[in-house]
Amino acid sequence: MIAHLQGRLVEKTPTDVVIDCNGVGYQVNISLHTFSLLPDSENIKLYTYLQVKEDAHTLFGFAEKAERELFKLLISVSGVGAGTARTMLSSLEPKHIIHSIGSGDVGTIQSIKGIGAKTAQRVILDLKDKVLKLYDLEEVSGPGYNTNKEEALSALEVLGFNKKLAEKVIEKIVKENPSASVETIIKQALKNL
Q1: How far apart are CA 140 and CA 122, in angstroms?
Q2: E-state strands within 63-176
Q3: pTM of whole model > 0.70?
Q4: Which residues form the Helix-hairpin-helix DNA-binding motif class domain (predicted)?
Q5: Distance, CA of 111 to CA of 91 (rounded, Å)
């Protein structure tokens, strides 16, 4: 309904701003990311999202369109409300969130205050395909984080192998064959341990 607001910045705090648009002051909730991008000038423009609930109409503002689109994606996930989405955008850079979702990095998403393991998994499950399509990301694990590698290491630890020793062996296997499945990594590791 309200796509953007352009006007004079009247009040500014890390969580919200008031923008005067021709005599009407709009209170707009913002993330810390947007707060860090606000210009020092009086005239500003924020891309907005209007959340309509039974008991309130709340405006959320973003310095960049991309952040607004990510916010809309996040609130589409069951269990993630506008407040949680804003916390996520305040805790991590939007690019970092997108990369974490795209690479299936549950740990990073879960590190955000108020996000539990189930919610983090749901965010990744619901948004991974959309994020990969929208942001044209390759479906690759981030550097240093390989789910198969982590699962194989965990399995070897359960089997009673020394973590440091198992890590070295797995590292070597993954270097030689980066796309190895968990089973392949474990089988290879068992031969070398």
Answers
A1: 19
A2: none
A3: no
A4: 72-91, 107-126, 153-172
A5: 9
